[in-house]
Amino acid sequence: MQLFYDPAIVPPLHTLGEEESKHCIRVLRLGRGATLHIADGRGTLYRCRIVEDDPRRCTVEVVETIPDFERLSYALTVAVAPTKNADRFEWFLEKATEVGIGAVIPLETEHSERRVFKAERSEKIITAAMKQSLKAYRPVLHPLTPFREAVLAPLRGGG
Predict the structure, then answer these.
(1) Domain-by-domain residue ranges, the chain?
(2) Which numeric CATH code is attached to 77-152?
């Protein structure tokens, strides 16, 4: 199964963004009539068929909608301080996404060595991990939060 991500998918016909279209048509060499799956990141999985195989604007027809695809019976939120080595935090984001974490709260602690947090890069890593692990739920990435604020705040769910 090949999984694509588009939070704005609206059946019955949908046009993928340019980046996803290029990946679908040029990289994977899928053509008209091929089947692919699109997740909206909120738990719905769409089985689609390609009706227009333009690498800039691939149009698909939604054949089946599967709500709550592989929904977990729980929602986990993990609060973690980004490590000095950015690669380790990125690895954590990948693995957390793969096991089904609902939300990640990056923490700023008293002894944090990393005060700059690249949210856009982290979002891309989460999206890639979601697609690779065939998840229909995309974890919520909260902004960098001071430790005290995170501990005193009411629990924030994964969606």
Answers:
(1) 3-66, 77-152
(2) 3.40.1280.10
pLDDT for res 116: 75
Give the type of residue at 37. Answer: H
Residue 127's closest CA among 17, 11, 29?
17
DSSP letter for 113, please: S
CATH topology of domain 3-66: Ribosomal Protein L25; Chain P (2.40.240)
Q: What is the pLDDT of residues 20-60, one digit of tens each?
A: 999 999 999 999 999 999 999 999 999 999 999 999 999 99
pLDDT recorded at residue 2: 86
Q: Are 3-66 and 77-152 in the same CATH fold?
A: no
Q: Which two tokens stand for residue 74?
A: 């729980």
Q: What is the pLDDT of residue 61?
A: 98
How many Å apart are CA 39 and CA 66, to the nearest integer?
Answer: 10
**DSSP state letter for 137:** B
Report which secondary-structure segment, H or E, holds 150: helix 147-152
Cis peptide upstream of residue 12 (ω within 30 degrees of 0): yes
Q: Say if residue 94 is exposed, middle or buried (CB neighbours under 10 Å; 0-12, 13-18, 19+).
A: middle
Cα dihedral 9→11→12→13 (10° resolution) = -20
